[in-house]
Fold this protein.
Amino acid sequence: MPGLDDLYKEIILDHYRNPRNQGELDSPPAHRTEGFNPLCGDEVTVTFEISDNSLSEVRIAGHGCSISQASASMMSAAVKGKAIDEVREVTRQFKAMMSIHEEKIGSEVSEQTSEEVFELGDLEALKGVVKFPVRIKCATLSWNALLTGLSELEG
Ligand code: ZN
C-alpha cells in the first residue's frame, strides 16, 4: 500500500491479520448478504441480527485484498450494537469520506470531515485510500453489502 501513512498501514494490516467479528451467524435467523468486487476479486459475506431496532450481532467473512478485508473488520467493530439509524449514519459518513473527490484531497479534507457526529476511529485509516480510486470499491464493499442487507429486511 504505497502512499499510505505508516500508522494507517499498521491499523489496516492489524484488522487484516486479526479480523474482528469474523465468521458467519446461522441464517436464518440471521440475515445474510454478500458483496463481490470484480475489479479486485474481493468477496465479503455479512451476516447480522437485529433486535430492538439495533444491530445486535454482526459477523463478516470473505477473502480478498487487505483493504477490503480490513474495512469489513473495521465496519463490524464500528456498527455492532448500534441502533439501525446510527448504523446508517456511520455508513453514510464513511462513504462520504471515501467519496471525497480527488481534487479535494489535501486542503479541503478537514472541512469535509469536521461535521462528523461519530468518531470514525480506526476507519480514518482508510481515508488515504481515496488517493487510489480503484481501491475505493474495495473499502466500501462490505458497507454496501450491509446497506443492501438492511434494505432487504425493510423491503
Ligand atoms: Zn480489493
User: Anything to note?
Assistant: The longest strand covers residues 42-51. Residues 105 and 131 are 8 Å apart (CA to CA). The first helix runs from residue 6 to 17. The pocket of zinc ion is lined by residues 37, 40, 42, 64-65, 67-68, 138 (CB under 6 Å).
